[in-house]
Amino acid sequence: EVQLLESGGGLVQPGGSLRLSCAASGFTFSSYAMSWVRQAPGKGLEWVSTISSSGGSTYYADSVKGRFTISRDNSKDSVSLQMNSLRAEDTAVYYCANMDLARWGQGTLVTASS
Amino acid sequence: DIQMTQSPSTLSASVGDRVTITCRASQSISSWLAWYQQKPGKAPKFLIYQASSLESGVPSRFSGSGSGTEFTLTISSLKPDDSATYYCQHYNSYPWTFGQGTKVEIK
Fold first, then answer.
1. Rounded CA gap, A102 and A31, in Å?
2. What is the pLDDT of residues A18-77, one digit of tens each?
3. Taking an 8 Å Cβ-Cβ cutoff, which residues of chain A contact chain B?
4. Stretch A76-88: mean pLDDT, rounded?
């Protein structure tokens, strides 16, 4: 069974940093691109970033470009999102997703607030 | 960037009704479109990929159609469990974008 488990969310002050992780299981992790999608409280879905299966290509939404970095460790079946210079508008539930296998994690809440 | 526009934003229908949600892309995305269902407090659930292919395990009352810039999600006979918010999303090119969502309520 495909499973994606996010961790690392929490409360951080504006301007601070946080690192999200997603542990994958139930599929050949190194064969698939992985993505992060977020949802601000009461709002719609927003794609954040995608990394190719090898990690050689990364893509970002304009809203996070230059502040967020996606990476993966295929030896540990995990993908991470390093979030720097956090803003209040980054407050959201962050989902890890494998779009090819149509699977999402349950999400982890990030709150950027003083 | 490609903009995705859904209509209506909300709809109220009775059990057994046929329900249609429209999603329009600001430029052609071929058939690179997915539909999701999301219930409060839950992660989105994948319903349809490549505009019209039903994800495994999704009830056959859900169907998708369209290509290019106009797409529809149809629920052939609405059930109480279908009360949720539905999103379209293109994956034609980066950045991927979602529609703003359609909330389906049961009368």
1. 14
2. 999 999 999 999 999 999 999 999 999 999 999 999 999 999 999 999 999 999 999 999
3. 35, 44-47, 50, 59-62, 95, 99, 102-107
4. 98
- pLDDT score, position A101: 87
A-chain residue closest to B85, CA distance? A44
Ranges of residues in chain B with a pLDDT under 70 are: none
**SS3 labels along B5-56:** EEECCEEEECCCCCEEEEEEECCCCCCCEEEEEECCCCCCEEEEECCCEECC
User: What backbone torsions phi and psi does residue A76 show, to the nearest 5 degrees?
Assistant: -115, 5
CA–CA distance, A80 with B64 (Å, rounded to integer): 33
CB B102 within 8 A of CB B11: yes
A104 forms beta bridges with A97
Rounded to the nearest 10°, the torsion over CA B38, B43, B47, B51 is 90
What CA–CA distances, in Å, run from A65 to A8, A45, A61, A84, A92? Answer: 20, 17, 6, 10, 17
